[in-house]
Amino acid sequence: MAAEHFNDTRFMLSVSQLAGLPDDAGAEVAFAGRSNAGKSSAINAITEQRGLARTSKTPGRTQLINYFAAGSEARRLVDLPGYGFAKVPERVKRQWSELLDGYFRERRSLRGLILMMDVRRPLTDFDGQMLDWCAAAGLPCHMLLTKADKLSRGAGMNALQQVRRSLAGSESQFSAQLFSAPNRLGVEEAREVLTRWLDDQTAA
Question: Which pTM does this prediction carry?
Answer without folding.
Answer: 0.91
